[in-house]
Amino acid sequence: MDVQANIDTEKLVLDLFEVEGVKFGNYTLKSGVQAPVYIDLRVVVSYPELMVRVSEMLWKASQNVKSEYKSICGVPYTALPLATCISAKENIPMLIRRKEAKGYGTKKLIEGKYNDGDNCLIIEDVCTSGSSVLDTVQALKTCGIKVSDAIVLLDREQGAVDVLKQHGITLHSVMGLNQVMEILERSKKIDCEMVEKVRSFLQVNRFTPSTNTQPCQPNQIKKLSFTERGKLCTNQMTKKLFGIMEEKKSNLVVSADFTQSQQILELVDKVGPHVCMVKTHIDIVEDFSQDFITKLLQMAQKHKFLLFEDRKYADIGNTVKLQYNNGIYHVSSWADIINAHCISGLGVLAALKQIGLEKNKGCLLVAEMSSTGNMITAEYTAATVKLAEENKDFVIGFICQNRLSDDPTLLHLTPGVQLKKGSDDLGQQYLTPEEVISKRGNDVIIVGRGITQSADVINTAIAYKQSAYNAYCQLLQ
Ligand SMILES: O=c1ccn([C@@H]2O[C@H](COP(=O)(O)O)[C@@H](O)[C@H]2O)c(=O)[nH]1
Fold it and tell me: Quick one: pLDDT band at residue 219, thresholds 50, 70, 90?
């Protein structure tokens, strides 16, 4: 690094420290991990001179990029104004990645002009694992745009270089966290104790490139208890569910797939003390009545469980809205949780949200299915996970077969569970509770016929509950 670059970096670090862009203390990161240092470059928009300086340094670092590129794209949101400054000053076209689910208009993931096969340079403010860069790369790829390089102002040096390399992307950084620490210690802004604390944090908390493209393995998942995960949630429904699971020591959902309301009520009264949730298919009930719903709600209160209507909404937004709120079932009036396939686009989620959000309801996205030959692809699952991560105000997790997201505030609920591995004669496939929780790293088992068709419903429910909860406890050790 030349002398001038060193001076510029040092000044920038001190200025960022002054405006609290770099902070020390005890911070909970997105992954749920506690960190002694937090970098928050969102503040630079309030200091235009600083913002220009940061963008100039990013541009300087981009001079090391060997590949040609047609445009730049900032990772939303913090790097958006930085990319805008570079684009305007250097006269290089910019692309914008749309982050929110947009249920109307052109539904474009990427705004701006581009051609198939164009190369785009990514601009980012801070890199930890490289996952935010990869999200933007994925969105660009969906539109036929290639990415070979990314520029970041501050690399936290926790493994992003290797993770991105595995995806064919070279990460160029203006500075690393260790360099930031050296500058701040030299300038007496922090003491050597803090430097040591951050260094050992960086050593222990490293992200490594995955060895395959399969969903993350349980041993990669942070060993947080349901209570600890509940504390990280801002979504009240997720928080509530984590609380019930811990209090009742149950990560069991029973699927009450009976066609007579009395059968359901009898089942629910027996298994209620042992489950965190009861799942219904309300449209198979032949004698549906408001009185049945009233009694079901009373049971839910008596035994402290949530009600999940497994309707799997999948139509266009307007229809879904009517299905959720109207008809004879008025699902939104009694079900705490519903679920949806996002096959028809973002309108489904937008519609359910319009009704459910103000009633404090939760939604699970169907990301994988248990049935043999189902047509869900890896790309569809990945897109569903992204949608969930971007809509956590309403989405509480997934219906899935594997752990799909390492976000501790998203729940993974798995149907297709019996005490013995097997299948039925209509394509349903069963895994054991241990396989689902310990090996695959999911949170909750959903059991239907394994319990409902047993001669001893109560003791069978207890056996499933203990098996799933013990598997969860073992993961924590
Ligand atoms: O992929 C999926 C999604 C939902 N289900 C539902 O779960 C229960 C399973 O019942 P079992 O009697 O335990 O087979 C049922 O209500 C399904 O509609 C699923 O099985 N797989």
Answer: very low
